[in-house]
Amino acid sequence: MPETTETQTRQWSGKTGGGNFGQRFLLLFLHRVNVAFLYPVLFLVVPVYCVANHKAFGCIFRYFNEIHHFSKWKSFWKTIQNHLVFGKVVLDRFAILAGNDRQFKIDVPDSRAFEEMLSRPGGFIVAGSHIGNFELVGHFFKQEQKTINIIVYDGENADFQSKRRESFLAHNVKMIPVREDLSHIFAIKTALDRGEIVAILCDRIFGSPKALEVNFFGRPAKFPLGTFVLAAQMEVPVVTLVAVKQRGTRYRGFVNVLPAPTEKMNIRGRSKFIAENYAATLENILKRYPEQWFNFYDFWGNEI
Description:
Mean pLDDT: 85
Number of strands: 11
């Protein structure tokens, strides 16, 4: 489970929980064992986690109750379901990093949109989110046309990062770690200039307080500014890609090419236009899969 911070900071540590020993054990165990074997264990782990992390539980409960307008009882059970699904996604992530990814299947009905973007010259941005399993971007959209550069937060332990890098390289994917000296900004621009893909999570403010406020489920919400400004400045296309968990080890992928802002807009206007369309795309998916929202803090601030 992810480590959470105080609600008012609206940030995340960027580090996967479980400790070094727990992560090593999962990687070794899931290298050969079908991940579904561990799913029943979550029914024991999740209740304990919900009690220990009651603030995160309360935030997700309010998300169901006040954003989706579910009853309190339905919101409670949806919150439990949310944690169970998230636990499965985390286990799936470790199984993928362990190299045991053949057990997973992903259905992408609208994959043609992604294929068309690959055939075009020039780079583009894949704007991901904490919906479903973003780790699948590099593993199941296998192609040799464009290198995928995934932006990662440099807070994981060395063993985890090494395994992640090894797994990504096997799928034509490179990692660009976020650095305090902002060197990752230059790496991102260089990758886009080379006509490559940059994949980044765009629904959680991390490190920088700079944000864009846009409408999300009828309420103002803050999204990180950087990616949208970069897309506006470099005039590169933005694609959203979401993989939601289905039954067993199956996933369903959704690809959407966001509309391009007009040339008459200034940089700020273009950035907000892209962010608004990004938020609208996430909202449409969450209306169908509300339990797969994995931002465990008060996303709307005092609005809810």
